[in-house]
Design goal:
single chain; 330 residues; Methylamine Dehydrogenase, Chain H; four-stranded antiparallel β-sheet; 30 strands; globular
Length: 330
């Protein structure tokens, strides 16, 4: 067994029962996210619940619950990287909500499309830029709206993308580039100019079916794109060229997350398979995460910690939360 495979054999697991709301029946975890300092973790559930956990060195504790924050289940959360406690949520209604880490609502933003006839729209994806200066929101009609965080979340830009957007990421240089994963398999990259206008920069092609998810290397060297045909493509941010392919699993990719040093990619699948961890340099499979298949209502979720050698994932078909860590490493 290789040294890197032995590395994962030393991980220890702790599982947490993420209790559903009393009287609401069973529920599944549908989203996981960790703040930039690694001190808070949020999971959302199909019963419309948001749960905020405190992340200690070796465990999760003191969960705070926000019950039914949106009209439907919260599918996306975005932490503001400038603060430890501020995050935004969307839940398939026409609102983006800004919260603090104690679960207190601080602001509501009504998402309105202004091109053509002005109308409220359903928000689906939300992301803060890497410097926390801007918040980007994708609505159901694949219109991207940009809000100026420093100016009380004033809307400053709106761009219509021609295809359905499955995922979105900011990358490199604070807030200069936005990348999208589209239904037609293409990966367009937009650049924000000095006038805060989004302009097409690159159009990457490499998938025969829809691009389902994106993940950026925290060190900015590359990004990975998952697809419905079960292929993960890896692209250099310097050259915008496809440099590697993961293609050994013939199953739709649900999520990708990259470890804090860019060494490992955790890949979650639509159904049937456990999460698998691959080494970036060799693209070799290093570890299969136990008890990590998708639930019946929600796709599997996995997230690396940005500050320690650990990751967390949805387990037991989405009904529990499992923390895996190396006790001997920070």
């Amino acid at each position: 067994m290789s040294t890197n495979k032995l590395f994962f054999q030393k991980f220890k697991s702790s599982t947490y029962t993420d209790e559903p709301i009393p009287g609401k029946g069973s529920s599944e975890i549908i989203h996981l996210t960790i703040n930039a300092s690694g001190t808070r973790l949020i999971n959302t559930r199909t019963d419309r619940l948001i749960r905020i956990w405190k992340c200690l060195h070796d465990k999760l504790s003191d969960a705070i619950t926000i019950s039914q924050p949106h009209l439907k289940a919260v599918e996306r959360i975005a932490w503001n990287p400038k603060t430890e406690h501020t995050f935004a949520s969307v839940g398939r209604d026409d609102l983006v909500k800004i919260w603090n880490g104690n679960g207190i609502l601080e602001k509501e933003i009504k998402v309105v499309k202004t091109q053509g006839k002005e109308e409220a729209v359903i928000s689906q994806i939300v992301k803060y830029s890497n410097d926390g200066d801007f918040l980007s929101v994708v609505d159901r009609d694949s219109t991207v709206s940009i809000y100026d965080v420093k100016n009380n979340y004033t809307k400053v830009e709106e761009v219509v993308i021609g295809e359905h957007i499955y995922d979105m990421e900011w990358f490199n240089y604070d807030h200069e580039f936005l990348i999208f994963a589209l239904h037609d398999g293409t990966i367009p990259i937009y650049r924000m100019d000095e006038n805060i206008k989004l302009k097409p920069s690159h159009l990457l092609k490499g998938h025969r079916s829809l691009a389902t998810c994106l993940s950026m290397d925290p060190r900015g060297r590359y990004f990975a794109v998952g697809s419905n045909e079960g292929v993960v493509s890896i692209w250099s941010t310097a050259s915008m060229m496809n440099t590697k392919i993961l293609s050994e699993v013939d199953e739709a990719i649900a999520q990708i997350d990259i470890s804090r040093d860019g060494t490992y990619l955790a890949v979650g699948f639509d159904s049937g398979s456990n999460i698998k961890i691959y080494e970036y340099d060799t693209t070799e499979e290093m570890f299969e995460v136990p008890n990590s298949t998708s639930g019946t209502l929600a796709l599997t979720q996995v997230k690396w910690f940005p500050t320690k050698t650990a990751f967390v994932y949805s387990s037991d078909n989405g009904r529990t939360l499992t923390l895996m860590r190396r006790p001997d490493l920070k």
